[in-house]
Amino acid sequence: MNKSNWNRRAVLKSLGLAAVGAPLAGKSMASESQGRLISFSHKNDKKLDKPVKVIVIGAGSRGWGAYSSYGLKFPDELQVVGVAEPIPYRRERISKAFNIPEENQFVTWEHVFEVAKFADALFITTPDDLHYGPAMAGLEAGYDLLLEKVIAQSWEQCNDILKLAEKKNSIVAVCHVLRYTPYFRKMKEILDNKEIGDIVSVQHLEPVERIHMSHSFVRGNWGNAEKSNPMILSKSCHDTDILRWLIGKPSQKVSSFGSLTLFRKEMAPEGSTDRCTNNCKIEHECPYSAIKLYKEQRGWLQHLNLEEVNDNTIMRELRNGPYGRCVYHCDNDVVDHQVSIFEFEDGITASFSMEALTHYGGRRTRVFGTKGDIIGDEHTLTVTNEETGKQEIWDADKAQKFASGHGGGDHGLVYDFVRAVAYQNAGILTSTIQASMESHLMGFMAEKSRLQGGQVESIDM
Question: Where does the record place the Gfo/Idh/MocA-like oxidoreductase N-terminal domain (predicted)?
Answer without folding.
Answer: 53-175
